[in-house]
Design a protein that fits this description.
2 domains, 18 strands, alpha+beta, Ubiquitin-like (UB roll), globular, 35% helix, 20% strand, 10-stranded mixed β-sheet, Creatine Kinase, Chain A, domain 2
Length: 445
């Protein structure tokens, strides 16, 4: 028995933990959970916990349905909101087949494969997300217009009604679970908030993002309000992104930093950015996986719709932050299209492999975009060689279909399932008659 497993078993006994929840995600990024009793824990570590994979979105066909969830003891944490009398804890799981081999439908395994590729090239991949979400005053009911909890704006420090203590309580709970928070503030739209998690390796961060979503919703419900990570719930307000800062390290050295370069980006960093740009359209169906995601990208402002990069340019898809230009450890690039409703395991695997493809192929970095890309005309953008991201989920799926990079990163099973699911979503969406059409056309036509 290894040290981490022994720690979990001792903690469960000493803290009177009565339920251990085993967490994993389906292909679309929805959290799945099964609870076991303490008496079953040693067996779960040794043999895993079996389940019907065909009942999980994208996991298996009926005739190959047996799968086994193996808890990762390094992810053990007590759930602060379930500690009233007898405690509850959670661990993330790796999903395997009965013969012990990894399940290629497990999003966590998809990211592990990408990180192994980076490791073989000598790199460790770190991410730091800025997670935006909305707090709502009314219950979430399908078809009912949401109401923002407050009318605050960017960085407002005001008394915001019942949500005043929300971020404090959420951050306290996150830190109790070992998730470090770097910043938090009110965002630009009414009811919109942002919490930035301190950087970590991409697998730890993907686990943290899944935990973050649970914590935010639990704290909201406890305060009699609701939270949503829907990319754009309000037509007249900005949507919720998850701008992610990424970096590669070689040991303790930041591979993106070059003090002699004007942008402070090394050749590796520039190739990585070039890879993100070249493959960005191919990965958009995953980084922005819902029909609603494209309402955010179409809204302008700081939601990128054009494939370009810049330093102090928040209309660019990829930004090179210059907050601390001479601090080597801070060198990073910011990928801005990804939204808060993405599956973080799949999205981070694709962002990483797009960048690594740029390094391996020594892609040339295009010229920097200095203008507000949204304010340029189509002719001006074409003259600068700036192409558009996919304009809808249907467009994104069509680009993804022909991508070798996405197919290799996700694996055949996840790739095929994801495409089928998203085609069906977009086709169903296209059949809907929207309130906009009824409002604008019915009186006239």
């Amino acid at each position: 028995m290894d040290r981490q497993t022994d720690f979990v078993l001792r903690t469960v006994e000493e803290r009177d933990v009565r339920f251990i929840r085993l967490w994993f995600t389906d292909v679309l990024g929805f959290l799945k959970s099964v609870a076991i009793a303490p008496a079953e824990l040693e067996g779960a570590f040794a043999e895993g916990v079996g389940f019907d994979g065909s009942a999980i979105e994208g996991f298996a066909r009926v005739y190959e349905s047996d799968m086994v969830a193996h808890p990762d003891p390094s992810t053990f944490q007590l759930l602060p909101w379930r500690q009233k009398v007898r405690g509850t804890a959670r661990m993330f799981c790796d999903i395997r087949l009965p013969d012990g081999s990894p399940s290629f439908s497990d999003p966590r395994h998809v990211l592990k494969r990408a990180m192994q590729r980076a490791s073989e090239m000598g790199f460790t991949f770190y991410t730091h997300p800025e997670i935006e979400f909305f707090l709502l005053a009314n219950p979430v009911v399908p078809g009912v217009e949401p109401t923002p909890l407050d009318q605050g704006g960017y960085f407002d420090h005001t008394t915001l009604g019942s949500g005043t203590d929300f971020r404090r309580d959420a951050i306290t709970m996150l830190e109790q679970m070992g998730i470090s928070v770097e910043f938090s503030h009110h965002e630009g739209a009414p009811g919109q908030h942002e919490i930035d998690l301190r950087y970590a390796d991409a697998l730890t961060m993907a686990d943290n993002i899944m935990t973050f979503r649970v914590v935010v919703k639990e704290v909201a419900v406890a305060q009699g309000i609701n939270a949503t990570f829907m990319p754009k719930p309000f037509s007249a307000a900005a949507g919720s992104g998850m701008h992610t800062h990424v970096s590669l390290f070689e040991g303790d050295t930041n591979a993106f930093y070059d003090a002699s370069d004007e942008t402070r980006l090394s050749k590796i960093g520039k190739h990585f950015v070039a890879g993100l740009l070249r493959h960005s359209a191919e990965i958009t169906a995953v980084t922005n996986q819902w029909v609603n995601s494209y309402k955010r990208l179409a809204a302008g402002g700081e939601a990128p719709a054009w494939i370009c990069w810049g330093r102090n340019n928040r209309s660019a898809l990829v930004r090179v932050p210059m907050f601390k230009p001479d601090k080597a450890s801070s060198a990073r690039v910011e990928f801005r299209s990804i939204d808060s409703a993405a599956n973080p395991y799949l999205a981070y695997a694709l962002i990483l492999n797009a960048g690594l493809a740029g390094i391996e192929g020594e892609y040339e970095l295009p010229d920097e975009a200095f203008d507000d890309v949204w304010s340029l005309t189509g002719r001006e953008r074409r003259a600068l060689g700036i192409e558009a991201l996919p304009q809808s989920l249907g467009d994104a799926v069509r680009v993804m279909e022909g991508s070798e990079l996405v197919a290799e990163t996700l694996g055949e099973h996840v790739f095929d399932y994801f495409l089928r699911n998203k085609r069906a979503e977009f086709e169903e969406y296209n059949r809907q008659v929207t309130p906009y059409e009824l409002r604008s056309m019915l009186p006239l036509v």
